[in-house]
Amino acid sequence: MLVPGTTLGALHDLQVPPSSADRLHSHSTPNAEPAPPSGTADGTARSRRSGERYRLAVRATNDVVWDWDAHADDEEWSEALFTVFGWLPQQAKRSADGARSWWSERIHPDDRDRVVSSYQHALASTMLERWEGTYRFRRADDSYAHVVDRALIQRDGRGDVSRVVRALRDASESILATAALRESEARFRALVEASACAVWRADTEANLTEDLPGWRAVTGMRAEEILGRGWMRAIHPDDRERAVRCWREARDLRTGFELVHRLRVADGSYRWFSCRGVPVRDDARGTIREWVGMHEDIDARHRQEVAERVLVHGTAALDGTLESTEALRGVADAVVAEMSDACLVYLACDGALELAELACRDDSRVEALRTLAGHDGSRLPIAPAAVAHTGHAALRADPPPAAEAIREPAPDGSLAPYAALCVPIQGQRGTLGALAALSFGALRDRPLTERELATLEELGRRAGRAIEQARAFRDTTRAREVAEAASAAKSDFLAVLSHEIRTPLSSIIGYAQLLADGITGPVSSAQGHQLRRIVSGAEHLRTLIEEILTLSRIEAGRAEVHPAPVDLCALVDEAIDIVALAAQQKGLRLVRDVPATGCVVTTDRTKLLQALVNLAGNAVKFTERGEIGFRVRVLDDRAELEVRDTGVGIAPEHQRRIYEPFWRVDQDHVHPSAGTGLGLAVVRNLVQLLGGGIRTESRAGEGSRFTLWLPR
Fold first, then answer.
1. Would 421 disulfide with which of 148, 280, 395, 603, CB 3.0-4.6 Å?
2. Please, are residues 555 and 571 in contact by the beta-carbon 8 Å criterion?
3. DSSP 424
4. 49, 41, 42, 39: which is closest to 17 by C-alpha?
5. The CATH number fitting domain 560-711, selected from 3.40.50.720, 3.30.565.10, 2.60.40.1220, 3.90.170.10
6. Are 403 and 264 contacting, i.e. CB atoms less than 8 angstroms apart?
7. CATH (residue range 302-405+413-461)
8. Looking at 245-393, which runs of residues are DSSP E strands?
9. SS3 category, 461
10. 245 in helix, strand or coil?
11. What is the pLDDT of residues 251-285, one digit of tens each?
12. C-alpha–C-alpha distance, residues 674 and 664, integer Å
């Protein structure tokens, strides 16, 4: 590829013969040597050679060449017009009205007036022989190329334009690259100016040998103070050793380093900076010649991260226990770990605030802090009682001292906080107390600002919710313990009472039965009827006692399960035998639907039989005509026992309450034979004790279906 200017330089030195076939016309210029007489053989050969050299030069270049004969108003585009811009030379014609050239029509509209005006000015001037312009030129695919256009202007003896040869070069890559470089440099300069960075250079021993205005601007140190290793005095004392150790490790490993530490800035306060350093090597030997780096102010970002960590750790402490004292201790520790020198928690008690917890960064100053805190915080810079009363947070901070004014602790060990804030501990039902944070360290490296205030306000709200939850849990636990104790006392009372009643009741039933059977002597028909009524009532009472005893044992957790293999088909047959007489007396059919084999499950036979008999007894009791059905189904994961009837059924609004102890559908009009209201409650408790459950399907007036299921 030819270098810029080569094409025009070569074409300028060529003499093009006046050949109409080539459409190239020869015209003299002030700088061109005179053409030989046209009649001589030498002149003809020379003209032919010059024309051939011209054509070869046009074909060899990557530039698009435009040749215009001003006298003949004839123009010619080179074939490169197609290879570079996609246009065929024969397409390069003037517009129909002749008002604008084909070339100017393809200049970008934003560039057209500027370029055409400059070009016409060059043609109009009698002194200019060269012209150059840069602009965007439309390709055949409607995209635009960035073009560098150079023109050689030939004039006749009067100074009028006789010929113009222009070379258009597609310089898109270089122009765009240059523009991108300028944009990148501009962004870099803006970034450097916008960032709070201190750039530094140090020798291989971390000594500064020259003044660093950026470092002085950030730290406020004088030029003579930063030389050598004096610049390190701006690093926080607690971070200085770590910073030196990090640099030494990087030096030994011959690699860059990065660390975060605190730096004392011009106003005397400490801010968090990110430090990055890299070695500069000698190209020839590869040895480290110096170190360069920068300190970037990340204080805002770091304090935001601190705030988030305090919230995370404080919330974890609140969520980790239901003991409010332990939770508040965790909150105070989270605040002191990264935000302030001390934290105090006050809770309302009998209308006044009392100190509940405190934490101190320096263990040696805990007693001094306790003295300052007092029992109600009245000696603090901000009174917690006032914050709790108004519900509004408060912040107080002294202005930072000069860089050299480092305050030492008071000789008597007392504390003089330079910053304090206090926020309410807010619950849903009111203010529960106050949370205070203090900073009193000599280095003043823990400032308290609006950011910290907002963080502790949120922590105070979370603490309030946690305290209320802990208190609610405590109250609920106490209420549950009281209820459980009352329930246990009730169960014990019922168990004792039932046991004491059952013994004499058995005697009543036995002797009444003897009398009714005439064992002790003949009885009349009326006497026999009355004795049978006594036996029936006593049996009913005994059933009630048995159900009360069963229910009380289950509720008290004293019911024991004795699992063993149980044949469900045989169990159904036994239940049918128990209720058969009662069903026969009412004219009810008993229907049995059980598989021939595979009905064995492992469970407590006695308790399951009791539940099944209770369901069967209820079915007989509440069915006047029709049938009682029993069904056994054995599935992959469970076995089901179904008892159905064609009795009175249960209304939908009552189906949720039928398992409550002593509850009956018609509480006001219940026949004595309607039952005690304990049967279904006992069934559900027994089945749940066996690891199963019960479901109900019923419609009033159509009957009911109860299904027990047990795991296999």
1. 395
2. no
3. E
4. 49
5. 3.30.565.10
6. yes
7. 3.30.450.40
8. 257-264, 270-281, 288-297, 342-349, 352-360
9. helix
10. helix
11. 888 889 999 999 988 888 888 999 999 998 876 67
12. 8
In this predicted structure, what is the pLDDT of residue 11? 45
Q: For residue 95, what are its two tokens?
A: 């517009």
Residue 608's identity, in one-letter code, is: L
What's domain 6-128+145-172's superfamily in CATH? PAS domain (3.30.450.20)
Residue 316 φ then ψ, to 5°: -60, -40
Tens-place pLDDT, residues 501-512: 777 878 888 888
- Give, rounded to a whole angstrom, the gap between the first and last alpha carbons of the chain: 90
What is the enclosing helix (H) or strand (E) of 506? helix 450-516
DSSP labels for 79-128?
THHHHHHS--GGG----TTSSS-HHHHTB-HHHHHHHHHHHHHHHH-SS-
Architecture of domain 195-297: 2-Layer Sandwich (3.30)
Does this model's pTM top 0.70? My answer is: no
SS3 content of the chain, % helix, strand, coil (to 5): 45, 25, 30
Bridging pattern class, strands 342-349 and 352-360: antiparallel
- Structure-token pair, residue 274: 């990110």
DSSP, collapsed to helix, strand or coil, labels residue 702 as coil
Q: Answer whether residue 196 shows pLDDT above 70.
A: no
148 contacts 171 by C-beta, under 8 angstroms: yes
Between CA 213 and CA 376 the distance in angstroms is 51
Report residue 644 as tokens: 């159905």
Tokens of 311: 């919230």
Look up residue 490 and give its two tokens: 């009730």
In angstroms, the CA 382 to CA 421 distance is 7
DSSP letter string, 556-581: TT------EEEEHHHHHHHHHHHHHH
Per the document, the length of the chain is: 712
Tokens describing residue 591: 């229907």
